[in-house]
Amino acid sequence: MLNKGDNRPIGVFDSGVGGLTVMRALGERLPNERIVYVGDTARAPYGGLSAETLLSYSRDIVRFLLDKDVKVVVLACGTTSSTAYDALCAEYPDLPLVDVIRPGVAAVKRIEGWRDLRLGFIATVATVKKGLFVKLLRGEHPDCMIESRACPLFAPMAERGLFYSLVTKWAAEAYLSDWRGKIDALVLGCTHYPLLAGVLGEVLPSVKFLDLADETAKATAIRLDADGLLRSSSDLPAHEYYVSGPPEAFDAIAEKIQKKPCKAKKIVFK
Ligand code: DGL
After folding, report:
1. Ligand 1 pocket member 194 (CB < 6 A)
2. What separation in Å is there between the alpha carbon of 189 and the centre of ligand 1?
């Protein structure tokens, strides 16, 4: 039978630029798909907010994305994936939603011998407090050796383009140097953190780093395929970006990440 496909865009959101790490992986895995990206930069960082506020902000964004006629929403944010995803799934039973935490667990399980590894998990305060990643991993392997830790300065630093700087190195040393030699792999449980990979690699040499992006892109591809929602059109997709804070500030950082110009539009959440 001819698959007509679905040419509507994929909706992706985060508090700011972190979700662009997921968008990059989506672009690699699904180069044909059009993406509408929302960065809630006026209300970022999300990491210190309550679960209630995070759900309310996520609802605002999902409503906006539905107005843009998206066919799936990717929560490209560990914080809302941990705190708001289940409620959103219940509220939007007909909308495919993909989070980053469950795929992150799948990424760990892909490592050979993962059950014997000493794992670290770093994320925002809200994500670590919720403990969903550790709970899901312990559901797979109750004795798994995993410690988690919040690194609240990392996302704001990434948001300001401080990917590789003295101040980022200082923060990474302060947060993580005591794990040197004590962990084998580190899960970057916030989508901003891969942007700091250079510094993290210097602070924790010979540690394997795992991010959430690729496995999330894979989960999205599987979901779209299963639901017959893959795009059939093969013209080059033109992505759209919307931010609640100043677009120029976002554009400057997005260009650093994507290595091409970005022109975000402003949205106002009431
Ligand atoms: N990138 C988000 C996450 O993965 C949010 C970080 C923040 O805004 O604090 O958790």
Report:
1. no
2. 9
Can you read off the two tokens belonging to residue 11? 């909706």
Atom of ligand 1 nearest to the CA of 79: 10
Are 30 and 102 spatial neighbours (Cβ–Cβ below 8 Å)? no
Residue 71 alpha carbon to ligand 1 centre in Å:
23
pTM over 0.70: yes
Burial of 125 (C-beta count, 10 Å sphere; 0-12/13-18/19+):
middle
Q: Which atom of ligand 1 lies nearest, measured to the CA of 76? A: 4
Q: Which residue has the tokens 């309550």?
A: 50
State which of 40, 77, 121, 151 you would mutate to test the pocket of ligand 1, scoring each by most atoms of that ligand within 8 A of its C-beta.
77
pLDDT in tens, the chain (270 residues): 445 689 999 999 999 999 999 999 999 999 999 999 999 999 999 999 999 999 999 999 999 999 999 999 999 999 999 999 999 999 999 999 999 999 999 999 999 999 999 999 999 999 999 999 999 999 999 999 999 999 999 999 999 999 999 999 999 999 999 999 999 999 999 999 999 999 999 999 999 999 999 999 999 999 999 999 999 888 888 999 999 999 999 999 999 999 999 999 999 998
